[in-house]
Every structure is written in structure tokens, then in C-alpha cells.
DNA sequence: TTCCATGTTCCGCA
DNA sequence: TTGCGGAACATGGA
């Protein structure tokens, strides 16, 4: 689930449900796996009695500013999500629970424990520490900046798009969608692409991510011309009808249309 | 039982 | 030295 569009949708969900409510109680489970650089004690102390005032997203990271100062950092790994509901209703695999007034709570749920929760002074502190590149949808990442960051890369096109230090926010699923529309084979060397191909990648990166957010990152709502809803089964290319191919690129499964995305 | 999964980090190697 | 790609991490579903 959680690439840039998914995290943006969760951000809007948090904004709509949990902002400006006083946190009455904090519960944490599996803190050894989930907490990163913060103790259960300190996290609880900082959160209890505070409010979430506003949110910020950078790539796949979500931040919520605390009225007590500092920011709550949420990273969702491969299986994390947020769930706002009644306080007595505990979702399976909950890791952090913030209880508000009127019997409501926000749950951070993360089945595979690959996500992280932390406390930071500023989002920029974390972004620098982790070494994240510019957010894929930020205005700072204009065409020229994209060119500069990508052109000298020695890795494959898909791996480069997924490299959070180059551009933050794109993961396995959306890299495939972007490469599909730009008609670039995921195994091509990024540095070997022509300038038209790089332009197409830039354009499709912005378009695909924006459209995915508009679709609430829900594959059932995505356009018929997209391949994301066709992952998993031996689907057909929605544009030319040829069969979709699966290949391994740097250990990840990539889906592509071999007819429209040529290797050379 | 074995393999695979929307992510990140660490390590070996070029 | 830099950076790429594979393995490990923890869990559960096919």
C-alpha cells in the first residue's frame, strides 16, 4: 500500500479525522520493532495531553506536528495504514493508539512491522538524516532538477525511480506505472536514456502520482489504461492487448508490456 | 512447505 | 570512494 499517493491519502484522512483533538491516552504495542530512536516513555509523555496540529508529507514519510512541540513521524513500511474509529474497537496488528475525547481513537496499524514511529524536532531533521531526495510531487522537483538528479545514475531506470535518495516517494508499484506510460523498459540503464525518454519519465511521474491521489490510491478507481489494477494475475496490456510480462529488477517484481516498452 | 509481498538498511563487490 | 544490487528484517496469505 504505502507509496507517495497512499501516504498522501492517509495524510488527508488524518487531517479529516484527528486534527485538533486532545490526546487522552496513548497505547503502544511491539515497541521494540516499531519505535525508532524514541522510548515508549518519552513518546507517551510527549503525546499525552497534546494535539496534532497539522501534517506534512515527504515521500513516504508522514509527520504530524504536536502542540507540545516537535513532530510525530510515521512510516508505514509495506503494510501500514491509519484507522480512525471507536475507542473500544481494536484493529488487528495495531501498534500505536491515540485515544481522543468522545470515545474515538486513531490507530497506526502495521502487520509486518517494517514501519517506524518516531519523534523528531523538524521533518527536515529526519529527511536529512535518512538522506531523502526531493519529494516527487514537490514544485522543487522541476524538469531541470529531475534531469540533474537522474542523468548520471548508473543503475536501472526502475531502481533509480525507486531510490529514495534520488527522488522520494516512488515505490515498486508506481514505478511500474510511470515506466509503462513513459514507454521505458524498467531494465534500461537510466543514464542511457534519450532526452525524450527522460522528459516522458518526468511528465508521467507527475501525472501518474497526481492521478493516483485523485483516485484515492484505490486501484479499482484507476483509469482503464493503467496496469496497476492488473498486477498479480497474468493480465493483458490495457493499451495494446499484448500480455503483461513479469521480470525481476534488483530483486523486485516489475510488470511491463514488452511490446510497448522495448529493452533497447 | 515454500514462496512471495506496495520498504529500508546493511554489506560485499565493482 | 561511490554506488549498485542482494540479503535480512517480521508476518501472513497463496
Descriptive overview:
The two termini are 31 Å apart. The strands form three sheets. The chain has a four-stranded antiparallel beta sheet with strand order 1-6-7-5. Strands 2-3-4-8 form a four-stranded antiparallel beta sheet, sandwiched between helices. Helices cover 31% and strands 22% of the residues. Helix 1 runs parallel beside helix 8 and helix 7 packs across helix 8. It contains eight helices and ten strands. It has 264 residues and is an alpha+beta fold. The model has no long low-confidence stretch (mean pLDDT 95). The structure holds a DNA duplex (14 and 14 nucleotides).
Mean pLDDT: 95
End-to-end C-alpha gap: 31 Å
Radius of gyration: 20 Å
Strand content: 15-25%
Secondary structure class reads: alpha+beta
Offer a quick outline of the entry.
With 264 residues, this protein is an alpha+beta fold.
Topology:
Elements: H1 4-18, E1 25-28, H2 31-34, H3 40-47, E2 52-58, E3 61-66, E4 71-75, E5 80-86, E6 94-99, E7 104-110, E8 116-120, H4 123-130, H5 143-151, H6 157-162, H7 172-182, H8 195-214, E9 244-249, E10 252-257
Helix pairs in contact: 1-8, 5-8, 7-8
The chain binds a DNA duplex (14 and 14 nucleotides) through α7.
Amino acid at each position: 500500500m504505502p507509496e507517495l499517493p497512499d501516504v498522501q491519502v492517509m495524510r488527508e484522512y488524518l487531517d479529516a479525522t484527528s486534527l485538533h483533538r486532545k490526546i487522552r491516552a496513548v497505547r503502544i504495542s511491539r515497541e521494540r520493532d516499531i519505535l525508532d530512536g524514541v522510548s515508549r516513555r518519552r513518546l507517551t509523555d510527549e503525546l499525552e495531553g497534546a494535539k496534532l496540529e497539522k501534517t506534512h508529507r515527504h515521500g513516504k514519510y508522514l509527520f504530524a506536528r504536536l502542540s507540545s512541540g516537535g513532530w510525530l513521524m510515521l512510516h508505514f513500511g509495506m503494510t501500514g495504514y491509519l484507522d480512525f474509529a471507536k475507542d473500544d474497537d481494536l484493529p488487528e496488528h495495531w501498534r500505536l493508539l491515540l485515544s481522543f475525547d468522545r470515545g474515538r481513537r486513531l490507530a497506526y496499524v502495521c502487520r509486518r512491522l517494517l514501519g517506524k514511529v518516531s519523534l523528531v524536532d523538524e521533518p527536515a531533521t529526519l529527511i536529512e538524516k535518512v538522506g531523502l531526495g526531493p519529494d516527487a510531487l514537490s514544485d522543487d522537483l522541476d524538469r531541470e532538477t529531475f534531469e540533474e538528479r537522474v542523468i548520471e545514475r548508473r543503475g536501472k531506470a526502475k531502481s533509480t525511480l525507486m531510490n529514495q535518495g534520488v527522488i522520494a516517494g516512488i515505490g515498486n508499484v508506481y514505478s511500474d506505472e510511470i515506466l509503462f506510460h513513459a514507454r521505458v523498459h524498467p531494465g534500461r540503464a537510466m543514464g542511457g536514456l534519450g532526452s525524450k525518454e527522460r522528459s516522458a519519465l518526468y511528465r508521467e511521474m507527475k501525472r501518474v502520482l497526481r492521478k493516483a491521489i485523485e483516485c484515492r490510491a484505490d486501484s479499482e478507481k484507476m483509469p482503464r489504461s493503467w496496469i496497476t489494477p492488473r498486477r498479480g494475475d497474468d493480465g493483458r496490456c490495457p493499451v495494446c492487448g499484448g500480455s503483461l510480462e513479469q521480470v525481476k529488477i534488483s530483486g523486485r517484481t516489475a510488470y511491463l508490456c514488452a511490446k510497448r516498452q522495448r529493452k533497447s
